[in-house]
Sequence to fold (475 residues):
Amino acid sequence: MSLSATRLAELVGSEPFRSPAYRDVTDRLRVLIVDGRLTDGTRLPSERELATALGLSRTTTTRVYAELRDASLLESRQGSGSVVRVPFRDSAVSNLIVDPDSPNDLPLTHSAASAPRGLASFFARAAERLPGILATTGYLPDGLPELREAIADHHTSDGLATTPDQIIVTCGAMGAINLAAQTFFRPGTRSIVEGVSFPHAYEALRAAGTRLSPLPLAGDPWDPTALKDALGRSGHAATYFIPDFHNPTGAVMSDADRGAWASLLRRHDVIPIADETLRPVNLDGDALPPPFATYDPRTITVGSLSKAFWGGLRIGWARVPEKRLMAMLQTRMSIDLGASAFDQLVGSDLLRDGLDIARAARVETRQARDHLLTELSRALPDVAATRPAGGMSLWLTFPKPVSTRLVARASQFGLLLTPGPRFLAQSGGERNLRLPFTHAVDVLSDAVARLAEAYEALDADRGEPRSSSSLDLIA
Ligand SMILES: Cc1ncc(COP(=O)(O)O)c(C=O)c1O
Fold:
């Protein structure tokens, strides 16, 4: 894929460059490569074209490309231009900005916690039951029967009557999103998504050949009128959305919006794909509206053990209406033939007997959320933060569009973050930042201190006072 100079300049941002400009532009491009907005193999415009688009000298952009080449992030060949390269070693640790071996780095790029206390004993317990599985082939395209039963019971006790044969166990929620996307999207179809969402879901949908129709950013993210307008444009096969403790905003879709969405989607014959990955992370314990599938039984519900227990389990699932089951299972056979049998043993024990572990983890996560909010209001009083009743991250709004520059600056203080634009299906998001609270409180205090330093440094770079006169709600 080639990127025009105008588009790259847009991504780099129009905020004045701090001196020396080559370093600032290099930092901004690094962030774009790290967070996946510039993917491996993308062909960049020539140094001359980029210089013109950015209003900088050719010497500056030549230096920028040279710095990126030195960092092994760019490959330039005579006659074929410069191509983005994401070095495997670095991408494996999700950290291209600063030395990944530095013990002082704080990576806040993932909204996920380490395994909760007590999880290891469930692996030991599953190992004892392993001989029963070893006597089979271990291929479980729809999933381990006892796990499917435990998942069905979990949905039923949440108010959504479910039978085990409606469950397809997948490798994480990502496996279920990909499975649904590959089953229901054809090149040329469109899918409606929230304007702000989980970026890997956008990627999965796009990879299945569908074009995204993002809903508007302002106001209610699930405004039924906006959905109605989007549905008025033809070609939509499905919609992917996160109704419970949305990632990254933490918002919860109201009962009224659920009802309105269900009737609109049914009328237009568009399949709802409701991602409930974060529904179990109910930090305040407030009653949630019923699961989306109770409003529209055609819903494909995506679930996961990653957030209630641990991402390393790689156990997720799709809860599928009977009529869609065979199509999804057939697709599944060309993807991975099933999730790990051992992890499924662990997962079924966890769903039956591990709820105390999940409860204790939620208490810690709630304390971490409250601590992060207190630290932020003290250190960065002009930054607005959501106070989500569940989920794992705050969504910050800055008075000015600084996100990508701030992330680049924070990396110099060893704080690694994902900038707001990464969560948008369209341009924007430069006023926003996702800040996960999936770390111990002392780590979060350190993170806020570094963020505040980086924020101060931005002001010093520009020599301007901050203004809080133009706060946006979301992006
Ligand atoms: C909304 C949402 N869906 C899916 C996932 C991926 O979950 P899993 O680890 O189960 O693949 C995440 C992870 O952060 C998420 O936030």
